[in-house]
């Protein structure tokens, strides 16, 4: 299991605390420092069963600068979104846990973290 985190994020710290309390075996990826490639983002999206706009933090300054709210949310624009997420990793929703069963989830709640632990 791997968890993508921003250490400054309270949801990330909460997820790590729960994983530790449960004795989970996991690795931490500080994705702002170890930026995911476009292919890694595609892989995580496939594992999540989501589209890039579903995991984009549209209130971030970079999102506003790029005008993301105006970008089309359709298959033809998918690569453009993925490129933006890789170029501006702060736009990626967090934390994301990639589970051992090949799935992934956005673990913003304790329930989601527990779900990941059960996979």
Structure, described:
Belongs to the ArsC family. It comes from Streptomyces cadmiisoli. The protein is α+β, with helices and mostly antiparallel strands and about 120 residues long. It has one domain: 3-Layer(aba) Sandwich (Glutaredoxin). It contains 5 helices and 4 strands; from the N terminus they run βαβαααββα. The protein has helices at about 10-20, 40-50, 60-65, 80-85, 110-115, and strands at about 1-5, 25-30, 95-100, 105. A 4-stranded mixed beta sheet has the order 2-1-3-4, with helices on both faces. α1 links the parallel β1 and β2 (about 25-30). The longest helix has 12 residues, at about 10-20. The radius of gyration is 14 Å and the shape is globular.
Major sheet: order of its strands? 2-1-3-4
Mean pLDDT: 96
Overall 3D geometry?
globular
CATH topology: Glutaredoxin
Poorly predicted regions are: none
Name the CATH architecture: 3-Layer(aba) Sandwich
Structural class: alpha+beta
């Amino acid at each position: 299991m791997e968890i993508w985190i921003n250490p400054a994020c309270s949801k990330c710290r909460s997820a790590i605390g729960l994983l530790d309390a449960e004795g989970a075996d996991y690795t931490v990826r500080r994705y702002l420092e170890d930026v995911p490639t476009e292919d890694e983002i595609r892989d995580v999206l496939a594992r999540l069963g989501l589209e890039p706009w579903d995991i984009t933090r549209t209130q971030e300054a970079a999102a506003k600068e790029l005008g993301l709210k105006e970008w089309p949310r359709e298959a033809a624009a998918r690569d453009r979104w993925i490129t933006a997420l890789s170029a501006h990793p702060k736009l990626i929703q967090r934390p994301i846990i990639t589970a051992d069963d090949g799935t992934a989830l956005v673990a913003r709640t304790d329930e989601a973290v527990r779900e990941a632990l059960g996979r």
